[in-house]
Amino acid sequence: MKQLSETVQDKYGRVDVLVNNAGVIVQGRIHEVELDDWKTLMKTDLDGVFHGVHYFMPALLRSKGNVVNISSVSGLGGDWGMSIYNAAKGAITNFTRALAMDYGADGVRVNAICPGFTFTDLTEDMKDNPELLERFYDRIPLRRAGEADDIARAIVFIASEDAAYITGVNLPVDGGITASNGQPKQA
């Protein structure tokens, strides 16, 4: 990441926005997953965010730029059988808040986008399971999965001057799933 930061600054002369977006998922209850699963997930999902911020922050301080971390609604609440993923995304959620506090006075904004169920390479196989999709859609007020463009538009907004007074926010982009308190829909 250090070399990437240097290359970007050499090529463009400045950094205005850093988007930390990488992730893997490990499913299974804690006694069912392997230590290597933990290490791989944390290295990708959490360490990647740390390294990105660590190496790009000096340039962001100079430009008074901003950071957009990609967390998840799984960083705002728990999932069945995904405790390792929840731990990493929860850490990103709170890391975002703490960084916003540490760098706000320097003019650097730090926010996170928290996608809900979104069609990506990680969820592509779910498109072939209509029963599972219906179980998801039953809990999503907009009755659909998110698309990459839904997330991208939120990133563009939160990184823009239109969001100049927003920092420390973990913005759910989730079709309304976090609007629920978890009770089932009544007929």
In summary, what is this structure?
43% of the residues lie in helices and 11% in strands. By secondary structure, it is of the alpha/beta class.
Tally the helices. Answer: 5
How many beta-strand segments?
Answer: 4
In helices, the fraction of residues equals 40-55%
Largest sheet strand order: 1-2-3-4
Supply Rg.
Answer: 17 Å
**Residue-averaged pLDDT, rounded?**
95
Helix and strand run: HEHEHEHHE
Largest sheet: 4 strands, parallel
Distance between the termini: 51 Å
Percent strand equals 5-15%
Query: Structural class of the secondary structure composition?
Result: alpha/beta
What report would you give on this structure?
The protein has 187 residues and is of the alpha/beta class. Helices cover 43% and strands 11% of the residues. The chain contains 5 helices and 4 strands; from the N terminus they run H-E-H-E-H-E-H-H-E. It has helices spanning 2-12, 35-63, 83-103, 130-137, 148-159; strands spanning 17-20, 66-70, 109-115, 170-173. It has a 4-stranded parallel sheet, sandwiched between helices. Helix 2 packs parallel to helix 3 (83-103). The longest helix is centred in the N-terminal third of the chain and has 29 residues, at 35-63. The chain is globular and about 55 Å long. The N and C termini lie far apart (51 Å). The model has no long low-confidence stretch (mean pLDDT 95).
